[in-house]
Amino acid sequence: MDSTVRGLWGARGLVGTLVSRDVRARTRQAFFGVGWIAIQPLIATGAVTLLVRGVLGLELTETPYPVFVMAGLLPWQIFSTGIAASAGSLVQHRDLITQVPFPRAALPLYPLVSKLIDFGVGVIALIGVLALHQMAPSTGAFLAILLVIPAIVLAYAASLILAPLALAARDLDRILAFVFSFLIYAVPVLYPLERIAPTWQTLYLANPAVGIVVNFRSLFLEGFLISPGALLWSCCVAVFGLALALRAFRAVEQVVADVV
Amino acid sequence: MTEPPIRFDDVWKSYPLGGKRVAVGGVLRAFLGRPNTDGVWALRDVSFQVERGASLGIIGGNGAGKTTILRLLAGISSPSRGVVRTQGRVASLIALGAGFHRELTGRENIYLNGSILGLSHREIDAKFDEIVAFSGLEHALDSPLKQYSSGMTARLGFSVATHVDPDVLLVDEILSVGDAAFRHQSYQRMISFRERGCPFVFVSHDLAAVSVLCDRVLWLDKGVPRLMGSAEEVIRAYLDDGDRARLNEVQPIDSSETGSVVVDRVTFHGGDGIETQEFDNGEPFTVRLHYRAKETVERPLFATTIWGEKGPLFSANMAVDGQFPERLPAGTGIVEAQFDHVPLTAGVYRVAVLAKTDIHHDAFSSRILGSFRIRSDPKRLGFGHPAADSIVRINTLVRVPYQWQVNPGVARPTVKRHRPLSISRNLAPPPAE
Question: Cα(B285)–Cα(B380) distance, rounded to whole angstroms?
């Protein structure tokens, strides 16, 4: 087995400790506590709904728009907030890197695991939003939740490359925040995939996040995969990306403590 | 032959020079599998092994590369060339508060640090009470670490690191922030580790501790190994080297002295009268003051004080002993303070000089005019214990001749002396008014 993967398995206790520390730090002194985790996607959904349906008066989807947006937002947040937190993980823990030996690959992993908890809370909030519309999750909803696995793998692969770069170029986190504020328009979260003009379809679908977002939404709400091909593409990118990223990370791990 | 638990073979280590372009380049090159070898050499061709049940001390000045060796052994960074191998679980205490989080409580930090060292939650549960007991921090367990003093942080760190059943222990300077009781407790624990066969590497400026804890010592000088050998041998060579360097430091001489008698220069002489800067403990020792009198001076007063690193040790002072001359004609000359035995232990000593034309006159400004060195000489310490010389030097300031008398089975009543001590010195008569 790959030595980095073996190291990660040995560090699972550390990942657990870091995750629980992260979650506690985010909820302990917050007024809303755990509720805060659910409030963020709810407010985002509400604001977009107000803009698109209320102000602009657009009817983009057959499913109720808030349901549509939130079901896309939850998997997308694994990428947007997950990669941002994960890419900054080495910078944030540079004391650990320079002072303590442990498998460094655990650092970009734990923020993503922590985002799984956000995702879980978000799904519960989504079920609430569905209930408001007299709807219920489909029978395939449990399978839809499994799509977080390729999502996490993809995000982890990206973070393994971005996190060491963030050590050398400390403004990378600002660049990423900027980029991700635009990237939400490059995934079908706010509008349906069918709205993309046919000439752009191929390029659009090359984004591996697209397959996960659209298929999670269709599987969770309606019980079928709207685009199995896109999902297959996402999974392939995830597996090959991770293999490449682990190799690259193993090389860079050697110099990480010297660059900090 | 079994592999030693710690191996360090022909290791070179360079750090990239600062600058963001270099940092980005370093990461990119590493991604491409071409780590950089240019930069500053922190270690040059260092090799050693530590066997089971052995211990190695690393000494040297600041920036010698001591901590770099520990970081390489711990696996925090990798060598530029050469091979570093350790066997089993390595526990390292390299920086104060490493692997701790300031906002978390002591209790939570034990779990955090334990999991960084590779323990599962259950394994930490099993050792928790032992860790707390050793650290002596029961009362502070539920306070956040930011409220801990540095000594308390070091206690907690040492306690966790030594309770994870390491196969190799690495300890940097951090114990020095603990109080004496905790240092002693920690040293005891390190010794018991070694006795169980777990080797350790100890980096410290506390040479007394190194000489007690380590059987072998490596002396590093700017990344280059200078000497490796028994603790006594290496510590002595290290101290001697420091002495020689300090002896050659140029002494600033204040030439603005304005009194009517000025000491320009001071020289040191042995029993044979020959000028030298190096003496052995117990040798006859003379401080010669080279003075210049601008006019004839009545009853001048000369004084000289021998200074060690920690302050003045003893002096010869005409204002105290009254041995001043009645009259000093204008011109140059010499005044000597002769000591039968120099009572000092090995090291470098500075000499301050003062000349006054009257006990009531002139500023009391003594000036450092020279320095001399007492050689370390293990053979002179009769019994010949190899460490005796270092022990004497590290622990005491002076060494005077004495005899032991051992009378087994005799309980002698203490005889008190009733006669006051007579002073047999030749005191000059008090000056006639």
Answer: 17
Beta strand ranges found along B30-140 (DSSP E): 40-50, 55-59, 81-86, 90-93
Tokens of A174: 């600002």
Is B84 among the domain residues? no
Please name every residue paired with B8 in a beta bridge, in sequence order, or none if there are none. Answer: B48, B84
Task: List the single best residue of B15, B22, B31 to mutate versus A (max A Cβ within 10 A).
Answer: B31
The pLDDT of residue B433 is: 42
Residue B78 has φ and ψ, to the nearest 5°, of: -115, 150
Domain count, chain B: 1
B94 — contact with chain A (CB < 8 Å)?
yes
CATH number, position B315: 2.70.50.60
To test the contact with chain B by mutation, choose from A17, A107, A250 the residue with the greatest count of B C-beta atoms within 10 A, namely A17
Tokens of B286: 């003379």
Q: Which of B27, B43, B80 to mutate to test the interface with A (most CBs of A within 10 A)?
A: B27
Residue B250 dihedral angles phi and psi, to the nearest 5°: -70, 130
Looking at the domain assignment, is residue B265 inside a domain?
yes
- Predicted complex ipTM: 0.74
Per-domain residue ranges of chain A: 8-189+199-259
Is B206 part of a structural domain of the chain?
A: no
Contact assessment for residue B372 and residue B390, using Cβ atoms and an 8 Å cutoff: no
Nearest by Cα to B20 from A166, A168, A93:
A168
Residues B128, B203: Cα–Cα separation, whole Å = 28
CA dihedral A131, A149, A183, A45 (to 10 degrees): 10
Which residue from B minimizes the CA distance to A96? B99
Count Cβ atoms within 10 A of the Cβ of residue B18 and give its class: 0-12 exposed, 13-18 middle, 19 or more buried: exposed
Greatest Cα-to-Cα distance within chain A, rounded to the nearest angstrom: 57
- Per cent of chain A over pLDDT 70 is 97
d(CA A50, CA A75): 21
- Taking residue A226's Cβ as centre, other Cβ atoms within 10 Å add up to 19
Task: Answer whether A168 touches B (CB < 8 Å).
Answer: yes
Task: Say how many CA atoms lie within 13 Å of B192 toward its Cβ.
Answer: 9
Q: Which two three-digit tokens encode residue B111?
A: 């779990």
User: Helix and strand tally (H, E) in chain B?
Assistant: 10, 19
Instruction: State the first-to-last Cα distance of chain A, in angstroms, to the nearest integer.
Output: 29
Task: Report the alpha-carbon distance of residue A145 to residue A122 in Å, rounded.
Answer: 11
Q: Give dist(CA B272, CA B141) in Å, integer.
A: 67
In angstroms, the first-to-last Cα distance of chain B is 88
Q: How far is A204 from chain B (nearest CA, A)?
A: 28
Contact A137, A70 (CB under 8 A): no
- pLDDT per residue as tens digits for the range B155-199: 898 898 888 888 899 998 877 777 888 888 888 888 888 888 889
Beta carbons of B78 and A248 less than 8 Å apart: no
CB < 8 Å to B20, chain A: 168-169
Chain B CA closest to residue A171: B20
Structural domain containing residue B267: 261-374
B15: chain A residues, CB-CB within 8 Å: 258
| Closest among B278, B190, B229 to B390, alpha carbons compared | B229
In a domain, B315, yes or no: yes
CB contact under 8 A, B92 and A97: no
* CA distance linking residue B82 with residue B80, whole number of Å: 7
In one-letter notation, the amino acid at residue B377 is D
| pLDDT tens by residue, B302-311 | 999 998 888 8
